[in-house]
């Protein structure tokens, strides 16, 4: 069967963007594909410096996947750092990757642009982990022989890089071993656009504008109230597609709430629905959908829950798979005695 793989990095509490961009589409794909989903903790190390935090977010991302319905009997579910084979292949593929490709990577370029704008040294605060980030991500994908990678739009370039890097390797060693060429799959909801956050920009941990998945009710309500709206009066017709509140509603709403979304759109367009009421609709849909997930999440976050057992078993399966590919690679490049 074809293989679906994706990862989330534990740099903060998992949020609606992660659910919509990655978790939901990935769980859907797990119905027909062989699936491998993981927590990219070594990717988080490019920015997280507090060991307690890294441990906490790793558990919290893992618990979120399971709460959202990941079935560990069907999906190989693991933590990246539990699979040392990844880091050996990381060196090999670093040697196959042009430096110019890394110079053009979005995340690195964005960091440089910010520095230049602030009048700083272009590389200020840029560590080699951030610079090499796309190579490690390529390894995550290639070492598991992935066919498809369900991700949000912001990660598409990285998957293309993985395909490029695989191509460079295959070009030289293809007679002995060839990596599969992976393809990104982006969610259909919102035309594949990234989910907006509390300030209307892309919802992202690094902008501190996220709606975390599992907040106490009153805090969730407060956050929903913070999403920006304009001053169009209640009676006036509104364009739902330019409202981040509506975009979040539309992309988040499960099929069972499709009627609510369609009705809300009509009422906004016709005039007569105010932003306050729209926010109440969003809040209710969030509560209904996230409530049951939260119960399972809270269970899993308790010390001694079966979270660690699940991840241990996943790591073992992931390592078996990775070491098969790694030995083929070692043989192909000539480091096996
Ligand atoms: P990360 O941790 O930033 O995000 C995890 C996933 O959530 C998606 N996402 C969004 N989708 C829609 N709207 C948003 N506002 C939004 N914010 C985040 C991301 O697109 C992503 O799919 N580099 C990756 C982690 C990673 C990985 C991999 C992914 C490491 N190795 C191998 C796939 C395959 C990252 O930082 O995602």
From TrEMBL:
InterPro entries per the UniProt record, alphabetical: aa-tRNA-synth_I_CS, aa-tRNA-synth_Ic, Rossmann-like_a/b/a_fold, Trp-tRNA-ligase, Trp-tRNA-ligase_bac-type, Trp-tRNA_synthetase
Placement of sequence motif 'KMSKS' region: 202-206
Coiled-coil portions: none
Key words, A-Z: Aminoacyl-tRNA synthetase, ATP-binding, Cytoplasm, Ligase, Nucleotide-binding, Protein biosynthesis
Enzyme Commission identifier(s): 6.1.1.2
The keyword GTP-binding belongs to this UniProt entry's keyword annotation: no
Catalytic reaction annotation: tRNA(Trp) + L-tryptophan + ATP = L-tryptophyl-tRNA(Trp) + AMP + diphosphate + H(+)
Primary localization: cytoplasm
Similarity comment: Belongs to the class-I aminoacyl-tRNA synthetase family.
Function as written in the Swiss-Prot or TrEMBL entry: Catalyzes the attachment of tryptophan to tRNA(Trp).
Protein name, UniProt field: Tryptophan--tRNA ligase
Protein source organism: Prauserella oleivorans
Gene: trpS
